[in-house]
Amino acid sequence: MPGSDPPGHPGRTIVVAFIVRRVIAAVLMLAVVSMATFAIFFLIPRALGQTPEGMASRYVGRDATPEAIQGAVKRLHLDDPLIVQYGRFAKGIVAGEDYSLGPKKAECPAPCFGFSFNNNQPVWPTLVDRLPATLSLALGAAVLWLVTGVSIGVVSALKRGSVLDRAAMTVALAGVSLPIYFTGLVSLSVFAYTLGIFPGGGSYTPITENPVMWFQALVLPWITLAFLYAALYARLTRAGMLETMGEDYIRTARAKGLKESTVVTKHALRATLTPILTIFGLDLGLLLGGAVLTESTFSIQGVGKLVIDAIRGNDLPVVLGVTLFAAFFIVLANLIVDILYAVVDPRVRLS
Amino acid sequence: MRKTNALALAALGTVLTMGLAACGGTAGGGGNTSSGNNATGDAASAAKHNDAYTKVVNPSDAKGGTLKYALSDEPDSMDPGNTYYAWNWNFSRLYSRPLMTYTAQPGEAGLKLVPDLAEAPGEVSADGKTWTYKLKKGIKYDDGTEVKAADVKYAIARSNFTDELTDGPKYFAQYLDSGDYKGPYKDKDLNNFKGVETPDDYTVVFKLKAPFSEFDFLAANPQSAPVPQAKDTGVDYEKAVVSTGPYKFESHEVGKQLNLVRNTNWDPATDSVRKQLPDRIEVQFKQNAEDIDNRLIAGQIQVDLAGTGLQSAGRAKIVNDAKLKDSTDNPFTPFNRYAMISTKVKPFDNIDCRKAVQYATDKVATQAPWGGPLGGEIGTTAMTPTTVGYKAFDLYPNGADHKGDLAKAKEALAACGQPNGFEANVAVRGDRTKEVQVAEALQASLDRVGIKLTIKKYPSGDWSAQYAGKPDFVHKNNLGIMIAGWGADWPSGFGFLSQIVDGRFIKASGNYNMMELNDPSVNELLDKGIQTTDATARNEIWAQVDQKVMESAAFMPFVYEKTLIFRPSNLTNVYVHPAWGMYDYTWLGVKQ
Amino acid sequence: MTSPAPEAFLELRDLRIHFPTEDGLVKSVDGLSYKLERGKTLGIVGESGSGKSVTSLGILGLHKGGRAKISGEIWLDGEELVGASADHVRTLRGKKMAMIFQDPLSAMHPYYSVGAQIVEAYRIHHKVSKAVARKHAIDMLGRVGIPQPDRRVDDFPHQFSGGMRQRAMIAMALSCDPELLIADEPTTALDVTVQAQILDLMTDLQREFNSALIIITHDLGVVAELSDDILVMYGGKCVEYGSAEDIFYRPEHPYTWGLLGSMPRLDREPTERLLPIKGTPPSLINVPSGCAFNPRCVYADRTEGKSTSQVPELLETEGGHLVRCHLPRTERRSIWDNEIKPMMEST
């Protein structure tokens, strides 16, 4: 009916209500994630017959006396009922907690994700410390792969079947199949150790310390990480573009007398990019929770490197912290993607 | 037992190192004590494979530059009182001085202890239960204050008697007569710690429960390095350790980066072992292990701090390049890799069945998983060649080529009453690839004489607490053979053997004497040895213990572990210190 | 080489549009010729796949740069388009000739407002400001009968009803006063009352602009009242051509008979077919030998075997009425008069 439809763009109240609803859902989800992670690391070992002492023995030296192990049990509260342990963890996030590190109590202000079992550092400051490296890596790589992946995909689709298309898709297949660990080490070996163009592994420097070094050290990790994603995005874009170019509205656009370049950029690309934008948001959100392989390969002390080491070392507070951190980014990315989607595609409503 | 870098070890490949020619020349530790100080000329270009094993390569007293270390893991702690890593006992000497330490020399000479913070080795009382050390005067912390005897006492108290500092060994707690002392964090009055007395500011007296003639080795542990009580922040102390060595903490981001700079309050006149060459020392933690090798070879870093050697890819590069190989050394680590054959599980309770295993094993096959000759030398004794008191012998010669003496094995089987062989289980840490491969090689070996092995895999995390280290479990599950390894906390026969062969150390859980050998003569010899103050006589006794243990046929060594470590050409003053089987980190310099 | 320019406003001469595919050559349009004058309406009728849409896309030059192999001539207002450059034909599109597509939900871009899409079409050919173009778009929407066009101009296609969307589509096509308007199934997706409104609208607008109009449909009913001439396509070829009267009162091709028999009528059940056309449309790769329609033709046995061996010619039967059939003319007349017509009238 004429005029009865609400306007296509989301109104402010709709957006606010949507965000509020989603934030509540997100908090609930994070709680569930934390419980699940907690259960994996605490409940399951207990169910399998692990004693508090057995668990504590992981976090003390090899020759620890029974007293030392008991001390660790007490210090880490491993002998409390699980629900109490979880409650303490949850309370720590909201209200902070004190820890015994020796002669004095150490304060861990909210949000306190506890202290690492392995090196006794508070988890939250560690996370905050590792985030800029991950952000630098993920955002830089994201820009790179989005630009290259999409352009290659578009060109490939428009020149479908050409030598260019075949070459690009072969490289893309390689990019998707080759593990980052391999491409990373090869690129280091060639560009850092043989040609000496870029610095080697472990040379990440915060941008606040030395922007030039920051950039140089990140070029190879960016390219390595972006290579994988660019390959994926090129394939996605190509497929999406081919589909879009067959749409009726593209024919309509041409029938109007539009130049082909306008047809591609204004009509085809916009429709192709919308689903890619969704995937992009989720990929980026996932990466902000840690680009585990790239960070490990290039020895970048980011969130991903932190969590992989924590998992290896059974360092529950760190694992929990990073899991929640990563879940937060994924939820955030989802939220942003949903809002953006509604802005980009007028058919989508926030509800 | 010392920790090694388990990850690095697990990553060492075997495929690539198969078929390597043995790199001989230095087996047995060598006795060459030539010091690099006397060497002249450009040693860098002339240095050959294993040169740093017997002499100082790239000798130089040139100061300056930044020396870069990298570690694939993160340390348990950089606090000298709270660490169990061999590399850290070596490295921490850059900023902490224990009472005693090892002579700065390659080869056997390096195993000799020399006083460090102390003026002289410990003076032992007639009853062997009191050890007294006099401190050198004028030794200062990096803030200029003088080191006091009470700081040594405090260091022992915090590292051995607190619930918080759990990462290091607890030998002082074990041997000192300190009653039920609660430790300095619960009991603020240090006078209640009776195990150590400080009659004056320069005298430290240790009171032992029983005679212990190797106490100087304990005093060489970095736990005896002084810590001022006022500066102690417990677990956090590793963030800002107060230095007595040539370097001090500039910054330490735990698990990330440690930067050391020169300590101007260190007086070289008081120090016979250390040098102070680089201006700055940087350590990066948690670096990609394979990338560390590449950076070493490219000269971008100088040392892989863990000292456990190159990864498989790096090794492959080395063995294919003679020039690169000249930049490597292949020292023994303190580790012996072996199988323990249970004396309680049938039919191994019969010594002849154990002997059958000793004869039938193809030790070339069991050497391969460790990386062939570069990864370890075939072993025939319980002690390793770099242990004080080691004597070479072979009670179960299994053929000139070490591939097994099947005739002797069958004889032994007949003597055991199992002429056609039998079925048995071999337990192994399932997540340790190399040990699993060793078990498989053993399986194939013994199959030749009819001993059918079933491989049982257990997780390494609870290996000693729940599985192989729990005799009840071993008996119930008929674990006849267990694949294990051991490295001594100090390089003497006692340090190596006591935990794994003393029948009185068989524990219900966390047991390392998995073979459950309880031979009174072994136990007595250990007691006799540790009470013998004369070092030569004492070392003779350790050799006898080794002999006795091997006679039981319950201990079957595979290899004395070796590593392949890389020395970049810009690393100066390099030699392998035998106490750790890695470069002496207090000597290294860097070419600018 | 092209022959001299014809007098007619639009003339197709032996147009062939073939698509090479992995399975073989698809002959979508295979030798099509016709003429159309300004102010006149041509109905092109045929099943899907008969080549009617491909032909009109060919006229618009939308196959250029693609895989299609095009031969023959398309003359529009004295200009030959098959040989013309793609860029030149593009400048004619939208302005000189425009097309109304079927299913406007998919034919309009879902992300742009209806107004924006009309504005875009207008501004390609007119150097005017956005505001002016917008005013024009509102005008056009008003003229095609969209109520409150100044409000609806910013709506998105999905916010329009089906009929409104079709009107908007027409407004877009007419925004530059095209001289040739091609409507491809303009009413397929609409219900009957709306269909009539849209068809009325198109003829009104055609009269107003004096454009030439081609209506493409599979439904003879749609073109019955609007068309001056009707062209029946089958298998990429014209099988019958004539005035609307010829086709409705004197049809001579068995396929046309089938189409007429399928016309929905108010006095019949919509699904009931008096003269069902059996079988399926022919493959355009392996065209049946002889007459492409022969496998489906009830009267094929009356052609003395020519039906499967010879391709029939398109021959004039009388006064501009062309038929492509092997049946003798008398036979065709007799079948229509004595067999088909009475059957259609009896129900």
UniProtKB/TrEMBL annotation, chain A:
The keyword Transcription does not apply. SUPFAM superfamilies: MetI-like. One of its GO terms (cellular component) is plasma membrane. Pfam families: BPD_transp_1, BPD_transp_1_N. Keywords: Cell membrane, Membrane, Transmembrane, Transmembrane helix, Transport. The chain crosses the membrane at residues 23-44, 135-158, 170-193, 213-234, 276-298, 318-344. It is found in: Cell membrane. One of its GO terms (biological process) is transmembrane transport. Belongs to the binding-protein-dependent transport system permease family. PANTHER family: DIPEPTIDE TRANSPORT SYSTEM PERMEASE PROTEIN DPPB-RELATED (PTHR43163). This is ABC transporter permease. It comes from Streptosporangium carneum. The lineage of its organism: Bacteria, Bacillati, Actinomycetota, Actinomycetes, Streptosporangiales.
UniProtKB/TrEMBL annotation, chain B:
CDD domains: PBP2_clavulanate_OppA2. Keywords: Signal. GO terms for molecular function: peptide transmembrane transporter activity. GO terms for biological process: peptide transport. The lineage of its organism: Bacteria, Bacillati, Actinomycetota, Actinomycetes, Streptosporangiales. Pfam families: SBP_bac_5. Residues 1-21 form the signal peptide. This is Peptide ABC transporter substrate-binding protein. Residues 112-502 form the Solute-binding protein family domain. Gene3D superfamilies: Dipeptide-binding Protein, Domain 3, Periplasmic binding protein-like II. One of its GO terms (cellular component) is periplasmic space. InterPro entries: Peptide/Ni-bd, SBP_5, SBP_5_dom.
TrEMBL record, chain C:
SUPFAM superfamilies: P-loop containing nucleoside triphosphate hydrolases. It holds the Pfam family ABC_tran. Keywords: ATP-binding, Cell membrane, Membrane, Nucleotide-binding, Transport. InterPro entries: AAA+_ATPase, ABC_Ni/Peptide_Import, ABC_transporter-like_ATP-bd, ABC_transporter-like_CS, Oligopep_ABC_C, P-loop_NTPase. CDD domains: ABC_NikE_OppD_transporters (cd03257). The keyword S-adenosyl-L-methionine does not apply. One of its GO terms (biological process) is peptide transport. GO terms for cellular component: plasma membrane. One of its GO terms (molecular function) is ATP binding. It is found in: Cell membrane. Signal peptide: none annotated. It is a peripheral membrane protein. Its main location: membrane. Residues 10-260 form the ABC transporter domain. Belongs to the ABC transporter superfamily. PANTHER family: DIPEPTIDE TRANSPORT ATP-BINDING PROTEIN DPPD (PTHR43297:SF2), OLIGOPEPTIDE TRANSPORT ATP-BINDING PROTEIN APPD (PTHR43297). This is Dipeptide/oligopeptide/nickel ABC transporter ATP-binding protein. It comes from Streptosporangium carneum.
